[in-house]
C-alpha cells in the first residue's frame, strides 16, 4: 500500500494533520483520461504572482441578496443557492427521527477532500433530478467532528441513506461512488 505522501500532491499534504481519523485507509488512483493527458492535475506554485492569481467573481446564478464572492478552483463549493444544504448534527438527528415521506441522503464531506468535491457535483445533479422524491443534506466533518465519529465516518466522502420507513436499516457507502449506484439505492433499496 502506498503512503499518503506518495499518492497526494504536495499541496494536499498540508490537510492531513487536520483530521487524521477521517483519512481513508486505501487511496485509489484513477488513471488519467487520454483526452486530458496534456492537462496537469497537480498543484503548482508557478505563476503565483499577481498575474497568476484568479480574481474573485460573482456566481451568475446567485440571488441578488446573497451575492457570494466565488473563486473557481478554491475547493469552497458550498454556496447559499445550492439545493443540498449544509446542516448540523442536531438537524440531521431531527430529520432522521422526524416524519418523512421521502428518503434522506446525508453526505459527510470535508472542503479539503478532492473526491468530496467531485461527489458534491453529482449529488447536486441528483438533488435536481429527485427534487420532490428525496431529501439531500450534507455535513462538514471538520465542523461536526464528534458527530462524524459517532456515525463511524472513517473515509470521505461517506453517504448515509435513510428510508422514510423507520423500521428499515440505513445504508452506508464510503468513497467516491457513481451516480447510477446512488440512483439504484434510492429507487430500489429505500
Describe the structure.
This protein is of the alpha/beta class and 190 residues long. 24% of the residues lie in helices and 14% in strands. The chain is built from five helices and seven strands; from the N terminus they run αβββαβαβαββα. It has helices at 4-7, 89-97, 114-129, 145-150, 179-189; strands spanning 57-58, 69-70, 85-86, 104-109, 135-140, 158-162, 171-174. The chain has a five-stranded mixed β-sheet, with helices on both faces. It has a two-stranded antiparallel ribbon with strand order 1-2. The two termini are 35 Å apart. Belongs to the thioredoxin family. Plant CITRX-type subfamily. InterPro entries: CITRX, Thioredoxin-like_sf, Thioredoxin_CS, Thioredoxin_domain. Keywords: Chloroplast, Disulfide bond, Electron transport, Oxidoreductase, Plastid, Redox-active center, Transit peptide, Transport. Residues 73-190 form the Thioredoxin domain. This is Thioredoxin-like protein CITRX, chloroplastic.
How many whole angstroms does the radius of gyration measure?
Answer: 18 Å
Counting H and I runs of at least 4 residues, what is the number of helices?
A: 5
Number of strands: 7
Question: Approximately what portion of the residues adopt beta-strand conformation?
Answer: 5-15%
| Separation of the first and last Cα atoms | 35 Å
Which regions are unreliable across 5 or more consecutive residues at pLDDT < 50?
1-57, 61-68, 70-78
Pfam families: Thioredoxin (PF00085)
Organism: Urochloa decumbens
Main location: plastid
Keywords: Chloroplast, Disulfide bond, Electron transport, Oxidoreductase, Plastid, Redox-active center, Transit peptide, Transport
Amino acid at each position: 500500500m502506498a503512503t499518503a505522501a506518495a499518492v497526494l500532491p504536495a499541496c494536499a499534504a498540508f490537510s492531513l494533520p487536520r483530521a487524521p481519523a477521517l483519512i481513508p485507509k486505501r487511496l485509489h488512483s484513477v488513471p488519467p483520461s487520454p483526452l486530458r493527458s496534456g492537462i496537469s492535475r497537480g498543484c503548482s506554485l508557478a505563476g503565483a504572482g499577481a498575474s497568476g492569481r484568479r480574481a474573485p467573481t460573482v456566481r451568475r446564478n446567485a440571488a441578488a441578496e446573497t451575492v457570494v464572492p466565488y473563486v473557481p478552483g478554491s475547493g469552497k463549493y458550498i454556496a447559499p443557492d445550492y439545493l443540498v444544504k449544509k446542516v448540523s448534527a442536531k438537524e440531521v438527528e431531527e430529520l432522521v427521527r422526524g416524519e418523512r415521506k421521502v428518503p434522506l441522503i446525508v453526505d459527510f464531506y470535508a472542503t479539503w477532500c478532492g473526491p468530496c468535491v467531485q461527489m458534491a457535483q453529482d449529488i447536486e445533479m441528483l438533488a435536481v433530478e429527485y427534487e420532490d422524491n428525496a431529501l439531500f443534506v450534507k455535513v462538514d466533518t471538520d465542523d461536526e467532528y464528534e458527530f462524524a465519529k459517532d456515525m463511524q465516518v472513517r473515509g470521505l466522502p461517506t453517504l448515509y441513506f435513510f428510508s422514510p420507513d423507520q423500521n428499515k436499516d440505513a445504508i452506508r457507502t464510503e468513497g467516491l461512488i457513481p451516480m447510477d449506484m446512488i440512483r439504484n439505492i434510492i429507487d430500489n433499496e429505500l
